[in-house]
Write a structure and sequence with these properties.
Helices cover 38% and strands 17% of the residues. It is α+β, with helices and mostly antiparallel strands. The strands form five sheets. The protein has a seven-stranded antiparallel beta sheet, covered by helices on one side. The N terminus is likely disordered.
Length: 546
């Protein structure tokens, strides 16, 4: 039998013992083939040595020889079966893939779809479109489902054009019948244009993704910095309060020691006085006994001679105790002095903290200049927009909505709406001024009332030495020294506005828990000229320059 005939029948290549394709086939002397291992095992477990196929017996176990030609045929069959199985697995349609429309039974995977036939074909059924002249002209595309959607529902023709006027796909008849005078181009041309647009869109999307990834990194970095700041603040806070606690305990111990020493001294004085008094009492009692005994004597001469010789009738010398006293020790001054010393220590610690805080907020310094469009007509601004003072006459300026009138105010150009802001203003030689920040929407015409409710977060000086914070109601501020330069800090997110005496490194006042919902602008009011007494300007100073 030829190899071709063997390949046509799978049964010829199956071992009769294991019923599987031969492995290491051998041939018996009677001409039958078996797997070498199968026939060996069969004879090892059988009483008789005979062929399992024809039952021919053997007196001795025959030598098993490999049939070379048959082994080659088995190998070819095994390889062919593997290729057939592999090809079937590769071509069989899987969920989500386009199946061949011609296959019956198992649907194979389609390689192409024909826009003319409106069908999809596997490799076998596609062959006519690749070989037959009439079918070669058909338009083939990568396999797609719902080919009927690619046909014009009105003219039953393939959608091969694109109407730019109506932004829709059309067939060759549509421009003649339904889309006359419209801008119609081949589908491929619009396809190429749309691909360019999609590529551009993809680039924009990737750019947006990249920006957001960078923003994520920025936010994570911000969180890391925030955690570092929080750890540092906690460590510094623990250190400060530990120092304060130790200072309080030390002052308390010193106070207790001082009081105890005072009490000890008072007690010692009392004990010494009592001892001296008891000694005098002892002497007096001794004299009293002598007097009593002498007074009982009936010997006239003896009594008179004893009195004359010893002065027994006089009391022994004693101390004048009328002006001697041991008053209770006074501790009021001691306690007050200890509290004052503690207050001095606390003041030093607070000063250190404020100095540190001031250095931190100064990092958020911005370049503030005065906005001339908001200035009251009496206010005179310097050319660089850094100084303002009140003149004596009204200037001829347009009465625009942004301008203050009649209040002597002006705003800064720099605004804050989500971050932090800091600036410093010199207030030397002035008897009145307002400083702070305001909401963008504040009323600028008519008399104004400073308060957070009205959109003003400011501090004021009146009559040369009266400082206050119009917090609704106004808070009177008691300052140790008159500020020469005032620092203004805004933390928009935290709702905080703080004012500092820059030279003294002292906190003047803070508005906390503020609710900001619009832009904030720096606010300045140099106050009335007051006959020249308040003519000095408010000066926006460079931060860090005294």
């Amino acid at each position: 039998m030829s190899a071709a005939n063997y390949l046509s029948s799978e049964d010829q290549f199956l071992c009769s013992i294991c019923l599987d394709v031969f492995t290491d086939p051998v041939t018996t002397s009677c001409g039958h083939n078996f797997c070498k291992n199968c026939i060996t095992e069969h004879w090892n477990t059988s009483d008789r040595c005979q062929c399992p196929m024809c039952k021919e017996g053997f007196n001795t176990r025959p030598d098993l020889r490999i049939n070379t030609l048959f082994s080659e045929m088995v190998a070819q069959f095994r390889q062919s079966a593997q290729q057939k199985t592999s090809s079937s697995e590769q071509q069989e349609s899987k969920p989500g893939e386009v199946p061949c429309d011609v296959c019956t039974g198992t649907k194979l995977k389609a390689l192409k779809s024909c826009l003319v036939c409106l069908a999809s074909y596997c490799e076998t059924h596609l062959e006519p479109h690749l070989t037959m002249s009439g079918l070669k002209r058909h338009q083939l595309i990568d396999p797609v489902e719902n080919l009927e959607d690619r046909m014009c529902t009105k003219h039953d023709k393939p959608l091969e054009l694109f109407c730019k006027t109506d932004q829709t796909c059309v067939c060759m008849l549509c421009p003649v019948l339904d889309h006359k005078m419209h801008d119609v181009v081949p589908l491929k041309e619009e396809y190429e244009g749309k691909k360019v647009e999609l590529k551009k869109t993809e680039a924009e999307i990737q750019q947006m993704i990249q920006k957001r990834r960078l923003k994520i990194q920025e936010i994570k970095h911000s969180v890391d910095l925030s955690e570092e700041d929080a750890d540092r603040e906690k460590a510094e806070g623990v250190q400060v309060f530990t120092d304060l606690k130790e200072s309080v305990e030390r002052r308390l111990n010193e106070l207790i020691k001082t009081i105890e020493e005072k009490q000890k001294t008072t007690k010692k004085q009392a004990e010494d006085s009592i001892k001296e008094l008891e000694q005098e009492i002892s002497e007096l009692m001794k004299r009293s006994t002598e007097v009593v005994q002498l007074s009982l004597s009936e010997d006239h001469l003896h009594l008179l001679q004893s009195v004359q010789s010893s002065n027994i009738h006089h009391p022994p010398p004693t101390k004048d105790w009328t002006k001697v006293s041991v008053p209770p020790a006074s501790y009021e001054v001691t306690v007050v002095r200890a509290v004052v010393q503690l207050e001095e220590t606390l003041s030093k610690e607070i000063k250190k903290l404020v100095e540190t805080e001031l250095k931190r907020v100064q990092k958020f310094a911005v370049d503030v200049t005065l906005d001339p469009d908001t200035a009251h007509p009496k206010l005179i601004l310097s050319a660089d927009g850094k100084q303002v003072h009140t003149g004596k006459v009204l200037q001829c300026l347009p009465n625009n909505p942004e301008r203050f009138s009649p209040s002597l105010c002006v705003l800064g150009t720099h605004n804050v709406s989500s971050e932090k802001l800091y600036f410093e203003v010199q207030v030397k030689r002035k008897s009145g001024w307002d400083l702070g920040v305001v909401r963008e929407s504040i009323t600028r015409k008519g008399l104004i009332s400073l308060s957070p409710e009205n959109g003003y977060w400011a501090i004021c000086l009146r009559n040369g030495n009266e400082y206050m914070a119009p917090a609704g109601p106004a808070v009177s501020l008691s300052l140790k020294s008159q500020p020469q330069k005032v620092g203004v800090f805004v933390d928009y997110e935290e709702g905080l506005v703080s004012f500092y005496d820059v030279d003294a490194a002292a906190l003047i006042y803070s508005f906390t828990g503020c609710s900001f919902n619009e832009k904030l602008f720096p606010y300045f009011c140099p106050g009335p000229n007051d006959g020249g007494k308040n003519s000095a300007p408010l000066i926006i100073s460079p931060v860090g320059v005294n």
